Amino acid sequence: MGVILIAEKLFDGERILADVAITIGDSGLISAVGGGVSSDAERLPGLLVPGFIDIQVNGGGGVLFNQEPSVNALQKISEAHSQFGTSAFLPTLITDSFPVMQQAADAVSGALSSGVPGVIGVHFEGPHLSEAKKGTHEGGFIRSLSHEELSLYAREDLGIRLVTLAPECVSVSDIRKLVSLGVHVCLGHSNASAEVVEAALDAGATGFTHLYNAMSPLHSREPGMVGTALIRDDAWCGLIADGHHVSTGAMALALKAKPRGKLLLVSDAMSLVGSDATSFPLFDRVVTREGDKLTSSTGELAGSHLDMIGAVKNIRDWCGVELPEALRMASLYPAQFLGLGAGVITEGARADMVLLGEDLQVNRTWSLGREIYRRN
Questions:
Q1: Which of 116, 139, 357, 366 is a good FRET partner for 47, with 20 to 30 A between their CA atoms?
Q2: Region 89-113: what's the mean pLDDT?
Q3: Global pTM?
Q4: Over the stretch 210-227, which tens digit does the pLDDT of each residue have?
Q5: Which of 96, 242, 268, 352 is the catalytic position?
Q6: Residue 102 and residue 187 share a domain
């Protein structure tokens, strides 16, 4: 029959309901919502919501994926982010050498086959980026797309594959090739003109990595990547709602410009999330945390110290987004972008769920029906 839980309150992705039974099957999918329940079913006080899906996780729990591309590292990152409601994520490797990319791919494959909770694929953020908009990425590793990298991106044992690239650095034909291989292509770290961005979208790119950051800005006579991202209703945009990468005014503009469902909350989290450390090495630099801001020793922002429940709270508190919509931005919309059967608590969906208490405190997290975090 499966495991039956009774939610005091349930947000199914659309509505908030009271006293609802959820049955989780052996496959880790939800087999029923509602219906009769047995007296020994576990009751869940608080608000049960769909689990958060983070498409940009560089690290957590003291581990940076670039520095430790292993299955064990992914387990630590999963544990770190589960306490903040993340039930599914894409481990993200920023620009690095090809051998490190291979190690990261093998780690993701191993994590998927061994069932590391939450790992659903991989995000390669680079190395095919613009030197002018590299941000904290290591310039010495930025390079053109090669046959060996195409072969790596084609690996079907990697689950969901996402590649962030600068469209002025990768041809339209290669973007089409990536899409034909089943790769999700996002545009970012780019100084491209609007014309070049439009061509990449028409070739099959579907999203933008961390809207506003490390991309050609909107000008009166040239929309740039920022303007094109806001104009194109068919494109998804990731948003780092930490108050450092994007101002509240810029967030409000994006919320007005983009159709509902096309803005995704992302963490862009580095290794310090879920850790007490205040600094870490990044290539030949040191990244230091002051409050919740990460700054490289060369002066630029270096990822974030944001987690997904923090992003939900911020977009609600700073921009007036109603809680149900803020939750969708962290769950349903990333699921729709990736084509993942999650982001809702309905029959047939992944049993990825988060139990929230007072002030949106994360009390429990499930991934594919398996409890992966319980507070205290």
A1: 116
A2: 98
A3: 0.97
A4: 999 999 999 999 999 999
A5: 268
A6: yes
